Amino acid sequence: MAGERTFLCIKPDAVQRGYVGEIISRFEKRGYKLVAMKFMKASDELLKKHYAEHVGKGFFEKLLKYMSSGPVVPMVWEGKDVIAQSRKMLGATNPLKSEPGTIRGDFSIDMGRNICHGSDSTQSAEREINLWFSEKERVEWKSMAESWIYE
Length: 151
Ligand code: DAT
Ligand code: MG
Description:
By secondary structure, this protein is of the alpha+beta class. Helices cover about 40% and strands about 15% of the residues. 2'-deoxyadenosine-5'-diphosphate binds near residues 63, 93, 111 and 112.
């Protein structure tokens, strides 16, 4: 299955609160395939590029401080419709509006502590994957579970 790819990033609050495994587990269990992953502190320079659309907005400095406050777990995941499906699995940007059962709806309350990032379109997925990962860091592998996930 030559699936679509998306960029997800577990944010510093989720690392601090011990939710790294739980978040990865949800995407694994759904049937999506992990293609790349790192554990790192993001520089202001990288975050300004990542959140380019929000530079200059009222909440931007707070967002930058939060995202650079500790380690994050950037990842690339692959599979059918993974961009839209992972946004659904994350829930709304404001956790107070996220449905229970979603990652943000289950584990967060405030917008500035909303646990995990996910690309919102094909274009942003491509841009974010290229920003956070070199070609070499994306692992080509065949999942043996594929024929049990896709018919
Ligand atoms: P998302 O992360 O759901 O793609 P976004 O791209 O609009 O949402 O914003 C990026 C992050 O910035 C978001 O996860 C939380 C924060 N944010 C967005 N809008 C905000 C606002 N009005 N006040 C405070 N923080 C905000
Ligand atoms: Mg966004």
